[in-house]
Amino acid sequence: MSNSNTEIRPFHISIPQDELDYLNARLDHYRLPNELPGSGWRLGVPGDYLSELITYWRNDFDWRAQEKTLNELPQFTTEIDGQNVHFVHVRSPEADATPLILTHGWPGSFVEFLDVIGPLTDPRAHGGDPADAFHLVLPSIPGYGFSGPTTEAGWNVNRTARAWAELMDRLGYERFGAQGGDWGSGISLELGRVAPDRVLGVHVNFLMTFPSGRPGELDDFEPADYARLGLLERFQGDFGGYMSIQSTRPQTLAYGLTDSPVGQLAWIVEKFKEWTDSVDRPEEAVDRDRMLTNVMLYWLTGTAASSARFYAEFAQSMAQGDYPARVERPVGVSVFPKDVILPIRKLASRDANVVAWREHDRGGHFAALEQPALLVEDIRAFFAGLPG
């Protein structure tokens, strides 16, 4: 990996007003497609809900207030392997805190982690044990948000993990933990593979466990395990349509998402409904302003194409037979019941050195947004339980 420019530069979000004016103009003149009566969310985002959300976005959502909140975080950029990488770096007041790199996924961003930053970095101020403190690094995946867009092929899970190892090295963290959900789970696990001598452990709140097809592998499965196999089949079919498109034709999709803020909104908000612990609308599980702030990061940075290309890069790696090796570093797993896929422990232990496993009775895919207190508790317990 080339390190010709290792400078770390402070970063401040400052979106030009003309870009916000353009967005508002587009939201003033949107068009919705027709839909079948009574279809609800079955065929996608219903028009009545989306119209309401567009009106709120246009008239009530305050980007400048959100921008101010985000700018209270110490943000930086640096070039790694030819790519600009944006990250948040919050050091704990506890000098001996454990360094921890948190990675988001799609359609998320570092905004997901806002509610866990305080409790993880300063447990003393949040009713916790100061021994559980972390120095936090929250990077944006190359091609996502302020780390995007990417300008060359090859930014996949492995390359990103290697970039994260370089980032932690630049920040002076020789040994550290890794945590993530969605793509952040895959990247964190890969980080445990590419830098095993540096990674203390890996905690994930999303894990895909596929049967290998070997004879007898499913013989001792419980009914609950078979139910989770059913969720996997659903994801590979109905729920995984977005992945098929982003893995094969991300560029074609991106024209609509990059040109239409309403298209970008619907593409993302659908997942906040389908993958969360909600019934009628995503706001039952996640804060509306937080969700729209996340959408804004994709829209304002024009990263619909480059974030989707991450799927195409992954698909290409798999087609080439680049199957990951078993993770030998300690792995902890948090399972939230309304996630799009639920892992099977027997299969997880086949692929990784799983030493901690917690099942929760609420929460979904965006754990840091939906159930931040539970996620913080799990992260603290996992890393506290690792050997020194």
Defining key terms:
alpha/beta; 388 residues; 43% helix; 9-stranded mixed sheet; 15 helices; single chain
Tell me what you see in this structure.
The protein has a nine-stranded mixed sheet with strand order 1-2-3-5-4-6-7-8-9, sandwiched between helices. By secondary structure, it is of the alpha/beta class. The longest helix has 16 residues, at 304-319. 45% of the residues are buried. The chain has helices at 17-28, 47-59, 63-70, 114-121, 157-170, 183-194, 223-236, 241-248, 250-259, 261-274, 288-301, 304-319, 345-351, 367-370, 372-384, and strands at residues 8-11, 75-80, 83-90, 98-103, 134-139, 176-180, 199-204, 327-335, 352-359.
